[in-house]
Prior knowledge:
Layout: H1 4-10, H2 27-39, E1 44-47, H3 50-60, E2 73-77, E3 81-91, H4 96-115, E4 118-130
Helix pairs in contact: 2-4
Amino acid sequence: MPGSRTALAGRRGTGDPATRGRTTIADAVVAKIAGLAARDVVGVHAMGSGLARTFGAVRDRVPGSGKSATRGVKAEVGEVQTALDLEIVVEYGVSIGDVARTVRENVIAAVERMTGLEVVEVNIAVVDVKLPDSEEDDEDSRPALQ
Length: 146
């Protein structure tokens, strides 16, 4: 259409530019933010159930794969709200209630600040406790792959 480009270039939109379009946030993005925020809490040893950690340990050994920030996190994202389920492993000797409360606060703050979504719930399942003499999850205790 000749001339239509000039007509569009001369028109200016009305209203707030922030309302012109839609932003969607993937479940995986929210899960990654939540996983990183949960791992930052003192007393959280690892994320995910035993099986997820086993598969994750194998995947982590593949060069370039890095650790999965979403391991142990499930996010359900709506248009303006999100709900999260986390599986954590706590260090032996810490107060599980205090760790869960701090994880919940940290996750809610990080997700709401970064996404603008309202976090309606953060369900936490403590799936294991890391004993002081247990070496199964220690990175340094694993032999290096040749």
